Amino acid sequence: MNMLFNDVYKTNNRQVADLASKLVRIPSHSKVETKETVVNEFIMNWFEQNNIPCEVEYSGKIPLPVAYLDYGADKTLLFNGHSDTTNVDFMKNPFSGEIKGNFLYGRGAADMKGGLAAVMYLFKYIKKTRQNPGINLAFAVTDGEEGGGSPGAIKLAKKLDANYCIVSEPTELKIYDSCKGIYFLKLESYGKSAHLSAPSFGNNAIDNLLGAYDYIKNNYIDNVTKRSNQNSLFVTCSIKGGSEGIPDYAEMLINRRVLAGESAKRDINAINALLENFYKSCNSNADIKIKKTVDFGPERSPMLTPKNKNFTNLCIEVYNKISGTNSRPMQHPGWTEGAIFRAAGIDAIIAGPGSVEYAHTPFEKVDIRELGRAVQIYALIVKGLGQVKE
Predict the structure, then answer these.
(1) Between the CA atoms of 300, 143, 318 and 316, what dihedral angle is there, to the nearest 10 degrees?
(2) Cα–Cα distance, 162 to 75 (Å, whole number)
């Protein structure tokens, strides 16, 4: 067993990059009529061509490939990745899949078709070794992660039987054992319209909204952010309102990134109490409402896999060996589908090629050397889990 996968260090970065390039060339964002269907069919055909068993589940009309390498073991490691991408506005040649120097360019290169390709290549590599790693493997390709509510992951988490999960989202291969939850808060301000030359006859909804937000920020948002070492975030992402006269309505949308133990209910209760103080402190006749909106449901709650788990410790040990560092598990700045699988009782970590610095940007790219190292890290985690006795 100690000799298992020893030649994984010879992984050809370019071969993994060529596979990722083929995925990038297939559009799979929300504005494409077929959405993820074409790229998922490519993935299913690729597994078939490489004699790797692959079943198909469906999320509505979208096929979801689920590949298996079953060795009759009593433990299963599940890999997860979504095949949808963000839109391609303001991008030049978003589906070129060009490989130039050490980088692969195009929409989804970092988030997260590079990660998908690394797992696909891993399965091909393990299949070719014809050796039993002592653990079963599965790979679930999901849909609708980029704003679509992750329906495929929700369905598969209830159906698949696994003990561990690796989500190959872009982390520069660093090991993340937690991620933030996500929801949105909306502040709505109601005023009274009047002619611009006679503002005293009206009640300016925009002025009231800005004043209330400033009060909330100074007395709640800044305190929460400071206590969490800048990890718990409130991000203002849109403001609407205004007309030809004194505005009678304005709204502000706040993107909320939360840690374990935080909730929309706690935020709303605290902010409503502050609004009452705001009205009294400035003798304001403002009318401000706050509510939770764009509700993704409990599936987008925070994720945390305990740090004392053998799985987490093994992943860190492997990453440190490959990277030559002495790192610890980290918290992912965004939300990932790992939270869905963790909520289903599966120990989950997030680790994949690519950087969030380039994800969702007009110049999205991934370092192809990370694609090869991802295969190495995943293979050594598989090897280690096959030896773990819990």
Answers:
(1) -10
(2) 7
Enclosing H/E stretch for 174:
none
CATH number of 6-180+302-387, picked from 3.40.50.300, 3.40.630.10, 1.10.10.10, 3.50.50.60: 3.40.630.10
Q: What is the pLDDT of residue 29?
A: 95
What ranges do the domains of the chain cover?
6-180+302-387, 181-293
Using the Cα atoms of residue 11, residue 15, residue 20 and residue 21 in order, give the sign of their dihedral: positive
Phi, psi of 246 (to 5 degrees): -60, 125
The residue ranges of the chain whose pLDDT is under 50 are 1, 390
Residue bearing tokens 């929309």 = 264
Instruction: Kindly give, in sequence order, each residue whose CB lies less than 8 Å from that of residue 104, ignoring residues fewer than 6 positions away.
Output: 17, 20, 21, 24, 97, 98, 114, 365, 366, 368, 371
Confidence (pLDDT) at 163: 96
Strands across the sheet containing 233-241: 233-241, 249-258, 181-190, 287-293
